[in-house]
Amino acid sequence: MDPLITLLEEAYGENLRVVYRHFPLTSIHDKAFVASEATEAAGAQGKFWEMHDLLFKRQAEWSGLTPNQFLETLAGYAEELGLDVERFSEDMASHAYAEKVQKSYDEAVSIGLPGTPTVFINGRYYPWDFSKESVDVFLDMISREYDGPPPQVIDPAKKYTATLRTTKGDIVIELFADQVPVTVNSFVFLAREGWYDGVTFFRVIPDFVAQTGDPTNSGYGSPGYMCDDEIVPALTYDAGGMVGMASQGPGTSTVGSQFFITYVPLPTLNGQYTIIGRVVEGMDVLQNLTPRDPSQGGNLPQGDVIETIVIEER
Amino acid sequence: MRKFALLVIIVIVGLVAGCNTPTPSPTATPSPTEPPTVAPAATTPGTVECRARAFGKVDGLPPVSDQDWVRGPADAPITLIEYSDFQ
């Protein structure tokens, strides 16, 4: 086990179950396959995890050995763990568990795993570091997701405004429901669901944009569904106060819940990110938001928070 | 690549193979340095859709079975599956 996962086991205690599956990258790790076989041979004698832990612990000791030396070392480990060494060595010599290891490897390849270690948490690919903090954010994120796209909640023939009640004051946004009906519908749905309540302006770059809308405040959060871009040429970033939807890039159909508000004209964004509205009141509040740039790392100041978003329909 | 994305979700296939995992740094930017080279096409009304897209959902991940090596309680609320090797 990656030592960092061991730390997670300590942190979560009885709340965490860990499953180990073999993915020996034989092309770059010449003894990885044999090591996996050794854990299986130990497992046949009830000591899989013991061998597993020992191999990780002594990695520096054996990783430079020749394959033959490694077999001898493994026999030594088997003895150290109180295994029946003769049986263990026979299993290794006959490759009794090679098929099982190979099957696991093939499975990993067919799923398309990028390398080792690759981790799934509650069935989802987990791309981050193994700190409890990051895992908590991940669990929080997937627990909030909706199962599908939002229901129709707006009437595009009506007028909608969204009032962002922030810790610095109100920002009132006119929503372009008639021109951008799908994305505004999603935004209104999420706002009414309370999705944005307590969410931080996690990325505030003066003279550029203030970004928010991610309940995890990590920049990764999304509502479990994603929408196509909804680009209307008449709507542009040619003024400050434009409200756009964040995405992974133009044309990627990855519009979720995150949005940003421009501080200044940003015509280079025209056509790149769906515009859903514009600020009609509270530009001064926007200007007062605490600057913070997560890409700079380090200790970021506490961001300002959206207490709630009030949708008005006329 | 990352710096041009407003938010990075995930791509399961095609990540660089290796032993490092990226940290969850919110990336970021609608980059002002990349002006579009062609006039952006307007979205055709009526074609815009939202669809379910759960974070990190992967087809073909076998569920935990009695063939697996498992450590921790069967009823634990968090299950972590690690594909790894020892070297």
Write the layout of secondary structure elements.
The complex is a heterodimer of chains A (314) and B (87).
Chain A: H1 3-12, E1 16-22, H2 32-43, H3 48-57, H4 59-62, H5 67-80, H6 85-93, H7 98-111, E2 118-121, E3 124-126, H8 132-144, E4 160-166, E5 169-175, H9 181-193, E6 199-200, E7 203-204, E8 209-212, E9 225-227, E10 242-245, E11 259-262, E12 275-281, H10 283-287, E13 305-313
Helix pairs in contact in A: 2-3, 2-5, 2-7, 5-6
Chain B: E1 50-52, E2 69-71, E3 78-84
Care to describe what's here?
The complex is a heterodimer of chains A (314) and B (87). Chain A is of the alpha+beta class and 314 residues long. Chain A has two domains: 3-134, Glutaredoxin, CATH 3.40.30.10; 160-313, Beta Barrel (Cyclophilin), CATH 2.40.100. Chain A has ten helices and 13 strands. Chain A has a nine-stranded antiparallel sheet with strand order 6-13-4-5-12-10-11-8-7. Chain A has a two-stranded antiparallel ribbon with strand order 2-3. Chain A starts with a helix and ends with a strand. With 87 residues, chain B is mainly β. Helix content of chain B is 0%, strand content 15%. Chain B is elongated, with a radius of gyration of 20 Å. The chains are: A alpha+beta (314), B mainly beta (87). At the A-B interface, helix 1, strand 1, helix 2, helix 3 and helix 7 of A face strand 1, strand 2 and strand 3 of B.
State the main characteristics.
heterodimer, A: 314 residues, alpha+beta, Glutaredoxin, Cyclophilin, nine-stranded antiparallel β-sheet, two-stranded antiparallel ribbon, elongated, B: 87 residues, mainly beta, 3 strands, 15% strand
Quick overview of this protein structure:
The complex is a heterodimer of chains A (314) and B (87). Chain A is of the alpha+beta class.
